[in-house]
Amino acid sequence: MLRVTLIVSAMLLAALPAKADGTILKIITRQDSERLAGYETTRKQALEEARRGAAQDLAILDGIIARPDLPFGSFDMTGDWKCRTLKLGGNLPLVVYGWFKCRVTDDGSGWQLEKLTGSQRTKGRFYTDGDNRLTYLGSGYIAGETALPYGSGAETDEVGYAYRTSDDAFRIEFPAPAKESRFNILELAR
Fold it and tell me: Could you say which of 41, 66, 112, 118 has the lowest number of CB atoms within 10 Å?
């Protein structure tokens, strides 16, 4: 009985994201710490600007942000996902892109995301920020290029908060991205 309990416990622990151990504080850049500090204000401003967007795009945005933020707990995000980007504020009020392919893997030390198709891509890692939120640190790059490691500079570094919205969906919200918009949302669905 004890052996079965230990095996089940080990399997459950393996499915959980790595707990915050201060590692992110050693990695995150000052600029990205500032982006996260301004997250709520930036999000509010971007949503206000997005309200001037097309009705069909607003319906998609409203559907995404209305979903509850669920605990990550036993959620396993590894595998293939369809993903799309929404750009809020900045150059245009709201742009909703079509679906592309993303993949989440686990290298034993946590989840890693890579957007596999589309011209604008991201590659990075998730860090636990609480029961209902993860922090994403990644690198943005263009198709045909190689993703630089996180910390390579303000033009490529990306930071955001990830929220689980169902058993088959989550999103990442990026405050103050380097180009084009005030705020980005990457929606992922199975």
Answer: 66
